[in-house]
TrEMBL record:
<dbReference type="InterPro" id="IPR003156">
    <property type="entry name" value="DHHA1_dom"/>
</dbReference>
<dbReference type="InterPro" id="IPR001667">
    <property type="entry name" value="DDH_dom"/>
</dbReference>
<dbReference type="GO" id="GO:0003676">
    <property type="term" value="F:nucleic acid binding"/>
</dbReference>
<dbReference type="Pfam" id="PF02272">
    <property type="entry name" value="DHHA1"/>
</dbReference>
<protein>
    <submittedName>
        <fullName>Bifunctional oligoribonuclease/PAP phosphatase NrnA</fullName>
    </submittedName>
</protein>
<feature type="domain" description="DHHA1">
    <location>
        <begin position="242"/>
        <end position="323"/>
    </location>
</feature>
<dbReference type="Pfam" id="PF01368">
    <property type="entry name" value="DHH"/>
</dbReference>
<dbReference type="InterPro" id="IPR051319">
    <property type="entry name" value="Oligoribo/pAp-PDE_c-di-AMP_PDE"/>
</dbReference>
<dbReference type="InterPro" id="IPR038763">
    <property type="entry name" value="DHH_sf"/>
</dbReference>
<feature type="domain" description="DDH">
    <location>
        <begin position="24"/>
        <end position="165"/>
    </location>
</feature>
Amino acid sequence: MALLFPQAEAEFNKVAGAIKNASNVAVLAHIKPDADAIGSACALVRGLRQIGIEASAYIGQPFPHANNLRSIPGVDEVIYGEALPADGLIVTVDCASVDRTGCYQSELMAQQERVIVLDHHRSNDGFGARNLIIDSESTTTIIRELFTYLGVELDAELAYCLYSGLVTDTGNFRWGSPRMHTLAGELLEFGLNPRNISLQLSDEMTADDLRLMGSALASLESRQVDDLTVSFMCIDEAAMQAMSQTAVEAVIDYARVLVGSDVGVVLKQFHSERWGISLRSTKVDVSVVASALGGGGHRPAAGYSAQGTKEQVQDRLLAALHDAYVAE
């Protein structure tokens, strides 16, 4: 297949060269991993082992992945919260900022010379000695390109890992460039069943999930800031503890498609005054807004963490949206 990122050939060569010279590689995905994080980590580990490099995947949290990720090959080998190897490289995948590495953050900051960052979030400022950050459909897209430079040969399990990140981060191919279809076509040649993969990763929900989703959707309220209509939906703490990750992501998808709304916001309550905020927009660059509030992401989709009451969190977001909107 032709190169997906021909403009970055020099950068890929440098990263591939560093990895080939490593004694071993710790592949580090972000906390609260999604399919792109798990798919990227598991694919890279499998690919490196194929070419004779010792590698393992790590996530800096003490609890496991969401149940919807169970079908991704290699997910059961991911190591949670244990010590990283004392030598070799640390390659982060899909970590938009160093705090997304969880309990490994201090270690990475203290040993930056060991760190390579592979990521597709445009808001990523780069926290490694080498940073390969390309605004693209998914981090698995970048991993696929890296395999070309490493000499890794695709197989069915690698294709599944790569496709998992691609299909979920493009919303089942609803947004992205023609590149996503080029890559999907290559991966499907390995006998993947796209319908089953989408069901396993994004579509399977319980009756309880649907009831809790209904409550979240019913919480919809809209507020104005300048000429923007901002629509808020809230998933309270009890619902967050009971809902599957698939159901939470489905609510976030609804925030993207609200007719008459310029910015969709989902407030996810983890504790009484601790929140995760997901932003979606086709009008405002929400990555700028999220970055101003300590997070990051892409132009149409971003997120951040916040403290305070629901009203305080909403007011701070509206103020940041005003600043971003006026700046544009």
